[in-house]
């Protein structure tokens, strides 16, 4: 067994962590996870932590699930990987059929990749290429939302809108049209209490439609997250907003591209957030929970109409020039299939509903806290925004890392979370029990209260 001190030294010496200021990381004591069981992870010293953010929003049925483990064990005895460039494999074929069966009906074709950013990169390229193949050469622009997050590749960053993440790379990006963040614009217009109402959507949508009316001839696609801007701090859309964007895209001949990477596979309370408003996108990106949090896999789903625009004789060069080494990996697709079976066998969505209600009820308590400026929920995901002064809407200085201070206090009480700046995120595995959820929220409440001194 490796010496634990060596592991800690090597972690800081050789491993460059994502979204992490390594100078600070190397000065602090950090967790190195060794194993997991259910909603808990254990570090190299055997200390136990409740996984409060589902291993970055992707763990669905808990760690070390026997059915998911078995799927991997059985598949690895057959074959671990073989290219799908001009060939196929059994799990990739079967999972494609199964995912088409449960996603919105007009989505009929599946293009695999390894993570949500790649799925969105593919969505953007497909939309652009689709119009080119259709002879609509003017349609090259995309509309997106401010505060959007769609991943960290150049294309997905181009359609993103979070300055702290994206500003440094601006010279590398292509230009897009940006509409205001629906939640933030709603708060500005009508206040937090009415921000999510149907009437608020009516106030917001005129601005969007007016812009689309003037520019639709050059717009290839409208890109947006499925009902909530997750990485922006859990900013839900007002009711009916998605449906209105669907209507506008239909009227002005624009592809609707919906990012379900964070919301898919139960996180919204539905299998897919699109079901909440009964909309069917033209292109949909999936990731995170697709394998239950086990292996990197993502998928971009499209309509038959889009797929058929890429069909032709080889010499026409209409086919989609895109691919990855591990596209449709059989191990990942096998565990993805098992993930769908667990949803059905364990009635995951049905059992989730009372926990969503409990979360809603418990979140009300956080308004009692002096340094809570907003509390937001979308299905089984929530964001509690920390501020220095609620009445003046004054944030804590960025360099104080207030959210991380709260997270550190929670770690000491056996709960691991990863804040979004000064937004404390609640997004545990879907299988968390009500008692475990209550404990997570109790620890978060007490840790935020400790800021009051």
Structural notes for this entry:
The chain is α/β, with parallel strands linked by helices and 453 residues long. The chain is 39% helix and 16% strand. The chain contains 17 helices and 16 strands. The strands form four sheets. The protein has a seven-stranded mixed β-sheet, sandwiched between helices. It has a four-stranded mixed β-sheet with strand order 1-2-3-15. A hairpin with a 4-residue loop joins strand 2 and strand 3. Helix 4 packs antiparallel against helix 14 and helix 15 packs parallel to helix 17. The longest helix is centred in the first third of the chain and has 18 residues.
Q: Flag low-confidence runs.
A: none
Mean pLDDT: 97
Give the amount of beta strand, in percent.
Answer: 15-25%
**Any idea what the radius of gyration is?**
22 Å
- Termini distance? 43 Å
Biggest sheet: strand arrangement: 4-12-11-10-7-5-6
Q: Got a strand count?
A: 16
**Principal-axis shape:** globular
Helix content: 25-40%
Give the biggest sheet. Answer: 7 strands, mixed
Number of helices: 17
Structural class from helices and strands? Answer: alpha/beta
């Amino acid at each position: 067994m490796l010496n634990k001190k060596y592991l800690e030294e090597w972690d800081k010496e050789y491993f460059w962590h994502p979204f992490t200021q390594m100078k600070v990381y190397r000065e602090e004591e950090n967790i190195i996870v060794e194993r997991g069981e259910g909603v808990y992870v254990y570090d190299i010293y055997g200390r136990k932590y409740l996984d409060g953010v589902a291993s970055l929003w992707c763990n669905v049925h808990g760690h070390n699930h026997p059915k998911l483990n078995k799927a991997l064990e059985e598949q690895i005895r057959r074959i671990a990987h073989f290219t799908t460039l001009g060939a196929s494999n059994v799990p990739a074929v079967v999972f494609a059929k199964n995912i088409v069966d449960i996603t919105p009906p007009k989505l009929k074709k599946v293009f695999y990749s390894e993570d949500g950013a790649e799925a969105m990169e593919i969505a953007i390229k497909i939309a652009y290429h689709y119009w080119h193949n259709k002879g609509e050469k003017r349609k090259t622009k995309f509309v997106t939302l401010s505060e959007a997050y769609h991943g960290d590749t150049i294309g997905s960053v181009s359609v993103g809108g979070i300055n702290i993440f994206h500003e440094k790379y601006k010279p590398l990006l292509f230009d897009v049209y940006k509409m205001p963040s629906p939640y933030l614009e709603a708060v500005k217009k009508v206040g937090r209490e009415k921000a999510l109402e149907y009437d608020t959507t009516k106030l917001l949508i005129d601005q969007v439609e007016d812009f689309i009316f003037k520019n639709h001839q050059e717009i290839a696609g409208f890109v947006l997250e499925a009902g909530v801007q997750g990485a922006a701090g859990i900013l839900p859309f007002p009711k009916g907003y998605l449906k209105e964007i669907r209507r506008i895209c239909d009227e002005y001949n624009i592809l609707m591209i919906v990012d379900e990477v964070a919301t898919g596979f139960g996180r919204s309370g539905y299998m897919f957030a699109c079901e909440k408003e009964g909309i069917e996108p033209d292109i949909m990106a999936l990731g995170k929970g697709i394998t239950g949090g086990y292996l990197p896999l993502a998928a971009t789903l499209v309509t038959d109409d889009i797929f058929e625009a890429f069909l032709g004789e080889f010499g026409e060069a209409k086919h989609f020039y895109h691919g990855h080494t591990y596209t449709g990996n059989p191990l990942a697709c096998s565990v993805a299939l098992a993930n769908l079976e667990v949803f059905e066998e364990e009635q995951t969505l049905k059992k989730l509903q009372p926990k969503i209600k409990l979360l809603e009820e418990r979140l009300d308590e956080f308004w009692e806290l002096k340094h809570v400026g907003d509390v937001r929920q979308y299905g089984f995901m929530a964001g509690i925004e920390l501020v220095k002064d609620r009445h003046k809407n004054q944030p804590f200085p960025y360099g104080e890392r207030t959210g991380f201070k709260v997270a550190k206090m929670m770690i000491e009480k056996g709960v691991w979370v990863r804040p979004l700046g000064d937004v404390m995120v609640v997004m545990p595995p879907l299988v968390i029990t009500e008692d475990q959820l209550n404990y997570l929220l109790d620890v978060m409440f007490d840790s935020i209260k400790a800021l009051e001194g």
